[in-house]
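[audit] Reproducing an earlier prediction to check determinism. Same input, same settings, fresh worker. If the tokens differ from the archived copy the diff job will pick it up downstream; this log only records the rerun itself.
[audit] input (744 residues):
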Amino acid sequence: MKMAAKNPELLAPAGSPACALAAFEAGADAVYAGLAKFNARERGENFDQATMAKVVDFAHRGGKKVYLTLNTLVKEQELPEVAELLEDIRVISPDALLVQDLGVLRMVREYFPSLEIHASTQMGIHNSAGFAVAEKLGVSRVVLERQVTLEELAAIRKKTSLEIEVFIHGALCCSLSGMCLFSSYLGAYSGNRGKCKQPCRRRYFSPKGNGFFFSPQDLCMAEYIPQLRSLGVQSLKIEGRLRQPDYVESVVRAYRLLLDSPESEFSSALSEARALLAGTCGRKWSSGFAEPSSWKTLIKSDSAGAAGIRCGSVEELRENGFYFTASRRLGAGDRLRVQPRNGEDGPALTVTKMFVNDSPARRARAGDRVFVCCDKPVPPDGMIFKIGTAFTDRRRQLEALPERRKKLDLVLELDGKELRISCSNAPLDDVVLPMELAPAEKHAADAEMLRSAFAEADSEVFALGRCGCTVRGSYFLPAPVLKAARREFWLRVKNQLKPELVFDPDAGTGLMRFRRDYLALKPDYVLPERLTETVFLKPRGAEPADRRALRADNVFTVNKESDEAVLPDFCPEGKLDALRRAVDRAYESGIRRFRVTSLYGLEILAPFKDIFIAASTPLPVCSSMAAAELAKFGVKRVMAHIELEKAAVSALREHSPLEVELYRLGRPGLLTTRAELPVEGPFRDNRGNGFEVRSDPRTGLSRIYPQKVVSVPRMEGVYDFYDLTNANWKNADTTTFNFDLALV
């Protein structure tokens, strides 16, 4: 008889404590949430540390999990602050930490090892070679790049033992994860640092017309749940940390219904789930990148990029609000967004006071003339979208969450005569409970049995922390005897121990080790008097200023003039073998310099021990910690992340154990996607910024390039990198990108 596939975890977004409670109530197995800084949704409400600790305890009491996000890029100057935050997170004790930045990952693994690490989708891991690197990094779970197909996922699943988490519902980014520079280019607000201004949702203009060229439809994988379950995916993730509790609750209930429905009833459950999802005020649904055929229809350029259900347009502005004719029902407590026609961000508001036909009202129907009171600036003729409905006020429930319990670290020792319980982090005498146990014929007592029993602390003040268990011999331990022992122990704790006497044996140790090691961190290389320029693949006729410069070419097109081979930034699972053969050919032709642009490349180059490896954009290196992590893989040089400002590059150079390189000239890809874009060639935004889309049929990727050439001045102590694929020395229309700004 064929065994039914195990249900994967249902993972919900928690942009606020209220969302976390709503998700658990609706049936989520786990939530992911962020603190105020260094998470990819800093625009959300997020959590303070005390509330996060309470929510983690609440979840654990119900057998649920909480994953904390620290999934942004971190500058060199921010490392000490991140170390302090990691110490706070260690105390909070989430079930895992989601990480993008290699430097943060290294800090977690080396200085805060009690924290489990999940690789954020922002790491861009999209093939089995990337999973192999993730395993070497100490990661236990990978959140898969969102543009991987189900067929590619199935192939990856067969080649890795790591847990896999996939997105199943919510908004989609147009760009490959972790590679988008679009928002950053338009004002230093980096999507890689949680500050995305969502330029892909705006209206753009081309010679052939205008539209929302880069705004994908929302993802809905409801019908694929049986397939994902059969593939052995460990976690199904709902996007939406900028959403409110009503959205989270409805989406979780819909997918909980699908996961818990027998196969024979899935069809009817799917209809019910879709009805629940239809009321969540999202964009039109799609299957995202699940099938190559869906890439062609993912973007509808004539559909506004705003999320929500259209319910009218602003007809008249007043000092204290605006009039419109409702095209559907709405009421007090609903949330609206008034979207400018150009697709830029519009104000969001909750309807607290409204008038229908100039009379106070709580509800409006389609066709009613409505006035909504509002103290925010509203765009004239703005499109009005309903983005949420009234939801349960959970303030009392949040206020009622108990304070965090003090954790006792115990050692349990069992033999046939007694159970001895010792506490290592509080002044508590050993508790010795006599027992007369018979030898076990089956079901012998083991460490897990003891640990599970004592985890039920019978206390609102104390809880089980770390627990070491030793069982000497094979004995039958009746459940009533074990329960009585547990009750006796926790009763003694209650009577003998004051909470303030419990101490944290690890408090500050990781933080102090980091500070010590960081102060000692210095470059361990000596720069030559003259730094060699590196030139990227150049079009015919373009020559570097220095004829002694090294030439780098795509690994598939290296020739006798090539000095360096560049691995692609995206390589689908089905093309890995072809890439390996290309690397072999380059090596056999004499190439000993290679450039990786994505983490997976480190695994491809692992067999070669006598080569020079440089890490280059779009693989981001922002700190000495990230450089030190790459050094483990044989990397000798790192390119300072292209988004960084001058001060951040200088700070990296002062501490990096590896050579540092600077992107001096070129047109970097601002957005890269597998989706079929409804525009090719030049286009512009409503502020006159010029761009160009180029699609490559060989790779199936489309990229947005800026019209202006990025050109930054030389910096002392760093190597130069010139990208001449889309630029030349004579370009007069230039920009310094963020070099003279401050990356937010």
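[audit] rerun output stored. Observation attached for the diff report: Residues 479-496 form the longest helix (18 residues).
[audit] end
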